[in-house]
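Researcher: Structure for this, please.
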Amino acid sequence: MESQPDGEEPNTTGATEKVVTDAPDMLDIETAEPLMGETSVEADLGVILGLKETNEALQAQLDDLDRQFEALKTQSMRMAADFDNFRKRTAKEKEDLEHQIKGNTLKELLPVVDNFERARSQIKPQNDGEMSIHRSYQGVYKQLVDCLKRIGVSPMRAEGTEFDPNLHEAVMRESTDEYPEGVVIEQLMRGYLLGERVLRHAMVKVAAAPMPVVTSEDTTKEAE
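Model: Predicted structure, token format:
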């Protein structure tokens, strides 16, 4: 260490300046910390905004998928309903076709049944030979009737019932006081049902109101 001349004070200016120069700028330190904090907040905000945008995009995709699901669900339900209606319609058409074919075939057999019934009511066997023949064709008639019953054919019982245009066909009307007006007096040709449907309408005679009796007094009054 160099000695200072007597009478002179040590020069400390340079050392002081060096200390001051080498010391950190406290102002810079105080201002640097807030700048770093602001950068961190901005970064966090950027992350939050990015997550928000991602969430909104995912929510939009979810909403779009929900709409697609509802559309597919509606379409699937509509297709199921259409298929069910098609199945029912096909079954109904098949049933109607079967009934039509069966009905047309059975209608061809009904005149045969009519002839058997007509013969049974008109032919009166007079001897053993005729009785044997009578029993033979009556046996055939019974087999035919039993076969029709198994298929679902049943005869109508029209006499004494109210006239029904859905079941009966009125071919005659007769004035009478023995039956109420509109009641079937006589079945001229038997009607038949196939299940619950009409196979053949019954031809009937229907009761009409009795005609008023004209007396001689009424005739005289009309002449006057």
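Researcher: Any notable elements?
Model: Helices lie at 13-22, 26-122, 128-151, 216-223. Strands lie at 153-155, 168-175, 184-189, 192-194, 197-200, 202-208.
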